[in-house]
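Design request, tokens follow.
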């Protein structure tokens, strides 16, 4: 008991440090935000004073020469422009501070199991998946929502993919564990990456643009032709404007010649409008997104990582000629140039030096040079984005441990496993012991005694272990086999499918995969619920014998005590455990502690009697 009290004190102290970290960040950036607001207000007042001073000065000196009035105007315009530049810089810092404060506030809520500020990826929920629906991997109050700190669409997809298809290779899991451990210590980097990515991020539209951009780029039908005549024209047109302008100012040519040249440049400037529009359609509305990508990549490029996976990611963003962030920033500027082509300034500049054609040529050259590198860069950013989430999860749970990964099928041994979505103050923890194949734990017990929670606890921690994340346990060793569950099978009106048939399909999928030689970790809850008790017993016993014959491993929870007799027939393959409901002095209580043996107490009739549904 003294050991557990000591562990509890250590965990409490570690969690206090995490709470303090977020609170100190909030306090520090709140003070910084206050100072920034004061500076922004002061600059606004000075700009207003400059405008008033300019108007007053021009009124006082209204009778002076135009040169004097021009000088007065510029005397006010230059400091006004500088103040505007500084104001924009301060405003960006203000937005950054506000976003970082909100992140730390949301993290504090997350420590108290309120993850509502983060996306749960409800669109990923699928009843057909091997385990995601059963283990509440996606959706509100899900495992994904507690983990997710991604800021890009492809980072979100990558993290969802890791949870849907966890690793089965020991080396890859250990490699990812090292990356997560390193990122857990880099809190400033993680928060800077998140805030940089989340600022100006749109919702679903941005995620779709993130994911679909490469397809739009590679599958575009119309390509802008960077030909020699146009290379000459983009320089000849502005040079000739300068020559004709000088000649006109010296009265060497008439204004009609300028008008004729204006019409010629109008034809040249918009002669390729269709091609330019087709090229622009490929990257429409992507300027701010690529600007964000550039800043995110810069976050990764600037750090010297130690773990192998983070070094790989950083290496993917390093180009022989320039860093990925620099190349992406130039792409953003080219797209921005085309974005402005229908503004008044854009039209004027296009007529005088073929601005649209210049940007189209630069954009097409960029695509030809870097389009094959984009998948590599996006992959690196997606991996880091997903790892950043796992790093934050590890940081927020200092009491969690990194499991050992076993080499041989099958092993899952753990002490004090708890569910990561259950409040740490009330979560009851239990052990698991599977050391060989085949081996099944049969869990019997009363209603509400904790069987289903135990199954989900095992499944979620098994998933976290195979993803490379820390787990809620005092110790854990796992073999990374494919996991299959059947805890929440439902009927389907749309496909005219009964509950029982849906469950049979699930069980057939498991048998088929075992027949194909696949190594599985199986978790089942109350199998064959959709049929009568006699059929259920016969079917359950036959299924268990078949699973043992295929040398499978897993856990089965059931109310059917007959399954407990299988331990006598297969003492080397099956072990009975139970969750008891204790009835004392007409009161029902649960310890939620796993015990050896078959359940002794059932509580259905007792509860019905207490509620007045059933009478003695």
């Amino acid at each position: 008991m003294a050991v557990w009290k000591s562990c509890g004190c250590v965990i409490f102290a570690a969690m206090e440090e995490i709470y303090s970290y977020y609170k100190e960040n909030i306090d520090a950036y709140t003070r910084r935000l206050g100072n920034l607001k004061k500076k922004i207000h002061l600059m606004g007042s000075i700009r207003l004073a400059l405008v008033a001073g300019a108007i007053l000065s021009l009124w006082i000196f209204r009778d002076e020469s135009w040169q004097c009035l021009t000088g007065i105007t510029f005397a006010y315009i230059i400091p006004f422009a500088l103040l505007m530049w500084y104001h924009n810089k301060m405003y960006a810092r203000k937005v950054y501070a506000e976003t970082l404060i909100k992140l730390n506030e949301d993290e504090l809520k997350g420590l108290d199991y309120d993850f509502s500020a983060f996306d749960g990826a409800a669109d990923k929920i699928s009843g057909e998946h091997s385990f995601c629906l059963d283990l509440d991997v996606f959706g509100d109050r899900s495992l994904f929502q507690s983990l997710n700190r991604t800021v890009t669409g492809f980072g979100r997809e990558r993290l969802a993919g890791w949870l849907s298809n966890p690793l089965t290779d020991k080396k890859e899991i250990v490699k990812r564990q090292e990356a997560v451990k390193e990122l857990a210590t880099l809190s400033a980097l993680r928060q800077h990456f998140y805030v940089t990515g989340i600022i100006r991020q749109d919702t679903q539209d941005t995620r779709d643009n993130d994911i679909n951009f490469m397809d739009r780029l590679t599958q575009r039908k119309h390509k802008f032709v960077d030909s020699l005549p146009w290379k000459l024209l983009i320089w000849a047109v502005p040079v000739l404007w300068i020559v004709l302008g000088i000649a006109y100012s010296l009265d060497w040519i008439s204004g009609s010649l300028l008008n004729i040249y204006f019409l010629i440049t109008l034809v040249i400037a918009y002669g390729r409008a269709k091609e330019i529009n087709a090229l622009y359609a490929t990257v429409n509305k992507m300027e701010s997104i690529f600007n964000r990508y550039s800043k995110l990549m810069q976050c990764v490029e600037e750090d010297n990582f130690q773990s192998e996976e983070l070094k790989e990611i950083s290496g993917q963003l390093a180009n022989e000629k320039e860093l990925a962030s620099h190349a992406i920033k130039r792409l953003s500027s080219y797209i921005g140039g085309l974005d402005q082509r229908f503004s008044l300034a854009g039209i004027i500049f296009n007529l005088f030096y073929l601005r649209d054609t210049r940007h189209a040529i630069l954009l097409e050259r960029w695509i030809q040079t870097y389009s094959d590198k984009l998948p590599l860069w996006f992959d690196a950013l997606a991996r880091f984005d997903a790892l950043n989430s796992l790093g934050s999860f590890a940081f927020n749970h200092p009491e969690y441990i990194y499991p050992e990964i076993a080499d041989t099928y099958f092993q899952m041994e753990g002490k004090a496993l708890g569910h990561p979505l259950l409040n740490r103050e009330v979560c009851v923890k239990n052990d698991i012991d599977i050391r060989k194949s085949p081996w099944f734990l049969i869990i019997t017990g009363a209603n509400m005694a904790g069987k289903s929670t135990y199954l989900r606890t095992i499944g979620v921690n098994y998933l976290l272990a195979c993803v490379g994340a820390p787990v809620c346990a005092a110790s854990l060793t796992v073999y990374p086999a494919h996991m299959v569950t059947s805890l929440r099978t439902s009927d389907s009106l749309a496909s005219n499918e009964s509950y029982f048939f849906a469950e049979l399909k699930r069980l057939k999928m498991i048998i088929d995969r075992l027949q194909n030689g696949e190594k599985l970790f199986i978790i089942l809850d109350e199998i064959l619920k959709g049929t009568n008790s006699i059929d259920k017993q016969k079917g359950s016993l036959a299924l268990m014998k078949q699973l043992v014959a295929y040398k499978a491993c897993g856990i089965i929870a059931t109310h059917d005590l007959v399954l407990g007799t299988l331990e006598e027939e297969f003492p080397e393959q099956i072990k009975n455990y139970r969750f008891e409901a204790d009835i004392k002095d007409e009161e029902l209580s649960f310890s939620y502690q796993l015990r050896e043996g078959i359940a002794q107490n059932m509580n259905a009739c007792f509860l019905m009697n207490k509620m007045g549904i059933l009478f003695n």
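Comment from the thread starter after seeing the answer: thanks! The first strand starts at residue 404 and ends at 405.
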